[in-house]
Amino acid sequence: MANLTYIGTRDQSIKATASQAILRGICPDGGLYIPETIPHMEKSLEELSKLSYRELAFEVLSLFLDFTDEELRACIDGAYDEKFDTAEIAPLVQKGDAFFLELYHGRTLAFKDMALSILPYFMKTAAKREGIDKEIVILTATSGDTGKAALEGFAGVEGTKIIVFFPEDGVSPVQKLQMTTQEGDNTCVVGILGNFDDAQSAVKSIFTDKELGEELARQGYLFSSANSINIGRLIPQIVYYFRAYLDAVKQGALNMGEEINFAVPTGNFGDILAGWYAMKMGLPVGHFVCASNDNKVLYDFFCSGTYDRNRQFHVTVSPSMDILISSNLERLLCHMTGQQATKEDMAKLSEEGKYSVEITEKKISGEFATEPETYAAIKKFFGETGYVMDTHTAVAYAAYQKYKGESKDTRPMVIVSTASPYKFTKDVMMALDEKYASEDAFALMHVLEKLSGVSIPEPIRGIENRTILHNNVCERDKIKDFVKRYLL
Ligand SMILES: *Cc1c(COP(=O)(O)O)cnc(C)c1O
Q: Counting atoms of ligand 1 from 1, which one is nearest the CA of 393?
């Protein structure tokens, strides 16, 4: 059990235990919780390399959580079981000039399962520790993958309700059906007439609305978040960076102790930040490539030190990265510049849409891939290796190629592979051959199966024939009203 204190990114006097931070999701002033100090991994890499995924998860998570060993083991055993279609949970696959860390073997075929299959267990444990008897209402904004992974995690979990907001016209057909066919009496799915940033801003403002919070508390409800603003989402993601490193050593890519690189397809900056925490805990990482699509606000930030969201929003073929306000960057900023500066910069971001800082972290750099570059990467890599990447993974791979050319860095590269190609079948197939443009996304799954030799994953087989159970649509400025009506 760790006695780690969590503090706010905008005010260090805001303090919480891990359980409190997980239940609250966000600080009362709108800031995010960060660990006061990042714990060091005391066990040696040699020792860790002997562990299974679950045992490794225990070693990492116990440094961050205030749970007893028994509580933590129960969380881990409940989450990382046969829900994953591979015993390794997060296999590392060597193809061409890279290693692919396949994080999409869970129920919803995206890396969000890695954290969202354990978050409900964290919340129940935290609620028990804190003596909370209220019903926990999870509010979630999604760019496509978080929503389904959160629904899958919380559906049927006693003492919880979950409401998911997704951009009605900004997700793939499979993503949409995955959410609108979700079963479970405690689930609610809403399409909003806006984009992810609209949904995320509305949800954040509900969390910090004191009046609404008090009204709901009287009715026996407590809000929390399943978005990566919740520290309970980030911590489980640290584990697979250790796993990837140890597996790459096992596969002979490098010697224990030498440095490895990661390319991470980035949206809200949660995944890559977990990798950065792993490095701060002692994992030998040489460099992180923060990969963006056409919404390259982070690329510009890492080049210039100026974060500027005043720009056109692009709906792309990698929709889970279509984000202009990367919430978790606030955590990195706070680690770099402290609470006072972060508070000022976040105020500037909300008022003027931009701020500038001096970037002192040199181990992260930005790259981006346009849509044609993403398509070309999928096609070329399939031609060379027979391996099919999804559109998000392909953004990271294309970014890696640019980084390699510019930096001449020869350390081994892990491409953090965030989704199954089946989740974005239509775009993946169009990348392979334009002739598929006119064909049905669901029929194409069978073509992809033949081409790739990878079976259609069980959770989405026949999804086009399932009954739609959710058809709520909501204006972006009516999200709060919707929540009130639904709960009160
Ligand atoms: C959420 C998501 C991302 C972006 O991850 P962040 O933690 O938000 O940066 C990338 N790829 C896929 C497939 C995703 O679902």
A: 11
Fold (topology level) of 92-108+234-457: Rossmann fold (3.40.50)
Joined together, the tokens standing for residue 360 give 């002192």
- Among residues 15, 43, 50, 112, the one annotated as catalytic is 112
pLDDT above 90: residue 200 = no
Q: Does 250 score more than 90 pLDDT?
A: yes
Closest atom of ligand 1 to 112 CA is 15
Tell me the C-alpha distance between 170 and 135, whole Å.
31
Residue for token pair 């709960």: 487
CA 215 / ligand 1 centre spacing (Å): 34
Whether 234 lines ligand 1, by a CB cut-off of 6 Å, is no
Q: What is the distance in A from the centroid of ligand 1 to the CA of 421?
A: 14
CB 49 within 8 A of CB 246: yes
Q: Is 209 helix (H, G, I), strand (E, B) or coil?
A: coil
- pLDDT bracket for residue 150 (50, 70, 90): very high
Token pair 């990447």 is at which residue?
389
Torsion angle, alpha carbons of 192, 198, 202, 205, to 10 = 180
Other CB atoms closer than 10 Å to residue 123's CB: what's the count? Answer: 28
**pLDDT band at residue 83 using 50, 70 and 90 as cut-offs:** very high
User: Which sequence spans correspond to the domains of the chain?
Assistant: 92-108+234-457
265 C-beta closer than 6 A to ligand 1: yes
Tokens of 76: 């881990």
State both tokens at 43: 């066990």
**Ligand 1 neighbour 102 (Cβ under 6 A):** no
Is residue 198 in contact with ligand 1, taking CB distance under 6 Å? no
The predicted structure's pLDDT at residue 32: 97
Q: Is the dihedral of CA 370, 375, 172, 143 positive or negative?
A: negative
Angle at alpha carbon of residue 162, lines to 157 and 167, rounded to 5°:
145
